[in-house]
Each structure stands twice: as structure tokens, then as C-alpha cells.
Amino acid sequence: MYQGTKAGKLLAASTISLVIALACVASANGQVTVGDRLNLIMNGSLGTSYESSFGNFTGSSHGLGFGINGTLDGYYFDPKFLSFQVRPYYDRMQSNADSQSITRGSGVEGSLSLFGGSHFPGSISYGRDFSSNSEFRIAGVPSVLGNSSGSTFDIAWGAQFEGLPTLYANYLVTDSTSTLLGTTNDSKSSSRSFSLNSDYRFAGFNLHGSVNHYNTEFLSPSFLTAVTISNTSSSTNYSVTATHRLPLSGSLGLAWSRTTSENGTGDSASNSYTASAVVSPWRRLSISETWNYTTNVIAAITERLSGETVPTFFNSGSGWNAMYMNTLSTLTLGYGLTVSGHVNYRLQHFQGRSLEDTQYGGSVTFRKINHFLGFLHFSIGVVDTATQEGNNGVGLITNLGMTRKFGRWDTAADVSYSQNTETLITIATTSNYSFGGMVRRKLNPSTYWSASFRESHSGLTAQKGNDNVSESFATSFSWRRYSVAGNYSWSSGAAFLGVNGTLTATPLGSIITNDFLTFDARSYGINASTRLFRALTVNGGYTNVSSNTFLKTLGTFNNGGRFNARLEWKLRRLDFIAGFDHAMQESSAVPGGPRAVNSYYVSLSRWFNVF
């Protein structure tokens, strides 16, 4: 394709030079000692590559360079004294919680361990990743196409002396950037955290204390939230726990924690006090009691939902305290049958009002194996809630599942439903249900087929319109060296913007905030692959994504699709890789119409042992 062009000549010259260079590399298994102390082991692949891209809103670009994917391991003096590992890579599949690479990734990872086995063990690690043609996820569903990059820097250290409290410290810095396909519209997030933990045993008590501090920043672009939103927040948590053994195979637990937060809506603080005890007077019977008091319930809820810090939209400064008591008893009857009963008491104060209720109920769980049903398990429970105004009604908890093999058919299915089971927050979703199943069939020794399905719903909600629903379906078929797979996922409902700038589905009602977003996201795709002549692998696929989000009266729509194909040929230690990718993305927040980007790449590399 590039014969006679400057790029083609460079590619040809680089390829010839690389083949000659790699052919001269002597492979040697084992390790090398440098001097008297340094030991090294290195292997991987080295190659040259050419890539190009062009689009309707971007110019044409070409790149020629070297690719590497290797590992360097070593230690100095002794592995426990100082050991290290460096892993540079190019053209590797990468994934994380917020985005998933679907074409190529490049970067470097490294780690260093110091003084292992001593009184002061420590470690340092660093990673930097660049992913091309990735999928940004909205509430777990691939929804926006783009590129992403991120880095992580982590330092951990400890102090361990016999008879003294242990001490562990950790400092972590992360950052990530996702760019909408064909634009400079970025989603950015960064965080810094420091944690200090200590353990000690004194007078029969196991003591644990910790201090954790978090700082987060994010910029959410208009393609995600209809308007550009930025926020800086921080949070500090202090906690102390103590446990002690009790007679009758029991244990006692005491805990205190305090969380302070700062975000765009103001400052907040919450204290929590917890005491619990459990005893087992008989091996089949256990009885537990738990007491908790929280001074700021909203701050506690939002921290639990979002992780380390409070999300931007939550105004957690308002006072809402609550006391909670729980008594639980479980009795194992045998033959797969277990019964349990519980009593919950709540006393809450919110905006000058006192809310009090008592919740009691029980459940029966059965698990049984026999030759007719295969493996069957189910549980059913009834919960009743009463307040000072009277009885609020009866709730239900049910779970049913089975796994069964019918000849060459492997099957599994389950369904669950719960209503009015929240034990701390009365405004949470009062019911939800989910069901799903899997079937797998071995048609013959070289042919397999499988399919799976999962659906979940929130049922009764505290406020209309705050429900969530999600569906997913996947199937695959393989015959000898050929395989094809398809997938579909859909999610819709209410969400809040987390501290890292991503949308997280939530069942909570607008009593906490009027700034919840509503979302609807869908994705489907198909992939196929085959292996020819034992050395040639060809695969390709198509993915279609669409989503919309609304914040009050503002909304944004995104849709797009991508097609990719890849060919990989292995000849002894030589690898030849070629790929093509076509992606189209349209967003209502970005004027000018759909963005289309085409890219392709070719690489030649050789795997080798350096030493």
C-alpha cells in the first residue's frame, strides 16, 4: 500500500533492520549475575511498527517506531533485601473499572520491594497506561467511544517489632483522562490518598486503629452530564476497633469511627459508635446482638455509596442522627434446613421529626441434593415493620436457585425478591428483584454452545421515578478453530455523579438531593475469530453503543459504533500483527455532526530471552 512512499520506505528499511538485528540475538535461558550482588532475568518481544489514522474532523497522521512487551526481574544481594520488576508493553489489551480498551494499549509498569522479612518492609510501584479506542461506561454499560490514559504511583511501608504495635503506611496517587472520539472533550479525574494502620494485642483484646485521608478532583464533560461539572473534595476517616473472645464460643466487638468531608456543597462530619456480641450456646444455635449510633446518617450513606469521599451533589451537612439495634438468632435443624429470626429497632431524628419503628421477621433456608433435582436451594422469609402510628405492612424475602446437568446440558438458574429489608435507611428502595440463568451444551467433542441472561429491577421505591433496571445477555458458539460470540446490555434509571466523575446507579430518593441524573444506556456487539494453519489467527467484531443522560432539564445524547479486525501470524519466535479499526461517534453536546476515525497498524516483533 505504501510502496514508493516515504513512509513505506521507512517501514521496509526498519523491518529489514529489525529482522537482521533479531536474528543476531542469542537466546539464553537462565539468569545473569552482574558483579557479585546484582541478579537479572529479562525476556520479552522487540519489534517495529507502523500506524496511521485519519477522520472527517481530524487530519491524517502516520507513526513509525519500535514496540516492546517484556519483563525485567531482578534482585540485589538477596530477594528479601531488594527485588524489582519492570514491565514495558505496547499493543496489549488493558481494562479498568471505568473504561475498557478494545484495540491497543501501551505503557509501563514497575515495582520495587525493599527489606522484606525485616522490621521495616516496604514497596514502591508505578504504572502508566495509554489505551486506544476504549469504551467509557455509564452505570456499567459501554456507552461512549474514545481514548484513555492514566497513571498510578504507590508507596507502602511498615514497621514490625515483636511486642509492639505494628504500623503500616500507604500513599497512593492516581489520575485518568478519557477523550471523546475525534474531539478534545475530556473527562478527567485524579486522587491522592494516605492511610495509616496499626494492630496490637493487649489484655486479650485485638486492637486496630486507622487514619485515612483522601483528596479527589474531577472534570465531567458535557457529553456525560449535559453541562461541564468540576469538583474538588476531600475526606478524612479515623477509626478504632477492639475485639475480645467470650464464653460459649462467642466474641465481643467495639468500634468508633469519625468521618469529615469537604466538597462543593459544604463541609460535613459524622461519628459512628458500634457494639456487637455473638454467642453460640449450642453448635447449631447462634445468637447475636448489634447496637449502632450514627450522628450524621446522610454522610454515612453517601460515603458507603461512593467509596472514600462524598459525591458532589450530596448536601450532607444537614443533621440526621439514628440509633439502630438488631437481634438475630439462627438455628440449623439439619437435612439442609435452617431457620432464623430477627428483631430490628430504629430511632431517627431528621429535620425536627422523630421516626421510630420496630422490624421483626424470620426466614427459612433449605439446601438439598438428590438425584432427581440435582442441586436445589431456596429461602423464604417474612418481615413486619411497626411504627408509633401502627403497623406498616409485611415484607417478603425469597431466593430460589438450581444447578442441574442433563446429559451434555449444563444449566443453572436463580430468582430473588426482597421487600422492606433495609435496616438503617427508611428512604431506600423498599423492594427489588432479579433473575437469570445459564445454559451450556457440548454438541460434540469439538463443538460447544453457551448462553446466559440476567435481569434486575428495583420494584417499590420511596419516590416515583427513582427506580433502576438492567439487562444483559451473552452467547457464544465454537467449532474446532472457529468461534463467534454476541452480547447485549441495557441499563436505565437514576444515578449520581461519583467523586471520580463516573455515573453510579443508586436507588435512593430525592429526599437527599434534587440533582440526581437519569440515564439510559445500551450496547450490543458481535465478535468472531479463527485460527488457520496453527499459526495464523484472525478476529474481528462490531460494537454499537448509545446512551442519554438528563440533569434536571438538560440532556445529552450519544451514539456510535465501531468495527475492528486483527490478524496475527506466529512463525517460531517471530510475530506479525496487522489491524484495522473504524469508529464513529456522535454526541449532542459536540457540534458538527458525527466523528469518524479510521486507524490501522502493522508490526513485526521477535520474542527472545536476553538473559
Q: Could you characterize what this model shows?
A:
The chain is mainly beta and 611 residues long. The chain has a domain of 89 residues. Helix content is 5%, strand content 70%. The chain has 3 helices and 30 strands. It has a 28-stranded antiparallel β-barrel. A hairpin with a 2-residue loop joins strand 15 and strand 16. It is globular, with a radius of gyration of 29 Å.
Which structural class is indicated by helix and strand composition?
mainly beta
- Overall pLDDT confidence: 76
End-to-end distance, in Å?
38 Å
> Over the alpha carbons, how many angstroms does the gyration radius reach?
29 Å
Q: Let me know the number of strands.
A: 30
Which percent bin holds the helix content? under 10%
Keywords for this structure?
globular, 28-stranded antiparallel β-barrel, mainly beta, about 70% strand, about 600 residues
Question: What is the topological layout?
Answer:
Blueprint: H1 6-23, E1 32-34, E2 38-55, E3 61-76, E4 82-90, E5 99-114, E6 122-138, E7 141-159, E8 166-180, E9 186-202, E10 205-220, H2 222-225, E11 229-246, E12 250-263, E13 266-282, E14 285-294, H3 297-306, E15 320-334, E16 337-350, E17 353-370, E18 374-387, E19 390-406, E20 409-419, E21 431-444, E22 447-458, E23 469-479, E24 482-497, E25 503-505, E26 517-532, E27 536-551, E28 554-571, E29 574-587, E30 595-609
Antiparallel strand pairs: 1-2, 2-3, 2-30, 3-4, 4-5, 5-6, 6-7, 7-8, 8-9, 9-10, 10-11, 11-12, 12-13, 13-14, 14-15, 15-16, 16-17, 17-18, 18-19, 19-20, 20-21, 21-22, 22-23, 23-24, 24-25, 24-26, 26-27, 27-28, 28-29, 29-30
